[in-house]
Amino acid sequence: MWFGRSPEMVKEEEALPGRAVPLTIDPTHVVLGTSMLPPYPEGTETAMVAMGCFWGAERAFFHLPGIVTTAVGYQGGFTPNPTYEEVCSGRTGHTETVLVVFDPSIVSYGEILSAFFEHHDPTQGYRQGNDVGTQYRSAIFTTSASQQALAERAARAFEEQLERAGLGRVTTEIEPAGPFYFAEDYHQQYLAKNPMGYCGLGGTGVSCPVGLFEA
To answer: Is position 1 within any domain?
Structure first.
């Protein structure tokens, strides 16, 4: 529970105007040595997930086998090319998102979803732990009909697991991906650059094995 007024999603007509020019970043992933910017290698796929503060969320993925690159950014809202301060104001509609480029011959989209659900609490609405605001909401942004269908099956299956454990219902938004806006340079692989940095990410303790939802 948090005190004070609950966060509310900004209306599109009230969102900040943003800017036409994207933020400039160093494209090299400091852990993997690959490019964070497209085009990505042939045969790879892209997943985009939001699970609270993107510092810890990104770290949950870049050490997995089969990950080609990761990046953090802003997605799901209205403001083009926003800054971190604008997103934190709650007036962009965006949530902090991790872009994950992966080799499906090594790691499946289902395994990405499994890591997503196990590494945070998808029942908390506009918050994650002590981080409160619409920018911390749980979301899956899909890039194909097959991703959409699998994400929806995974959410239903994990919700059943949570209910058996006496926990709440899944509040994760699942929708086709809109534009992904790269966050500022200093946010990229933040916890690799700052190992003692803040990470409020925490799961429910309930497992989400791929076998629950991937035939």
So the answer is: no
Tokens of 88: 């934190």
Catalytic residue list: 53
Gap between the Cα atoms of 93 and 132, Å rounded: 14
Task: Please give the Cα distance from 9 to 25 (Å, whole number).
Answer: 28
Q: What is the pTM of this model?
A: 0.96
Specify whether the backbone of 156 is left (phi greater than 0), alpha (psi in -120 to 50) or beta.
alpha
Q: Rounded to an integer, what distance in angstroms lies between the CA atom of residue 179 and that of residue 3?
A: 33
pLDDT tens-place string over residues 81-131: 999 999 999 999 999 999 999 999 999 999 999 999 999 999 999 999 999
Consecutive H or E run containing 73 = strand 67-75
The CATH code of the domain that includes 22 is 3.30.1060.10
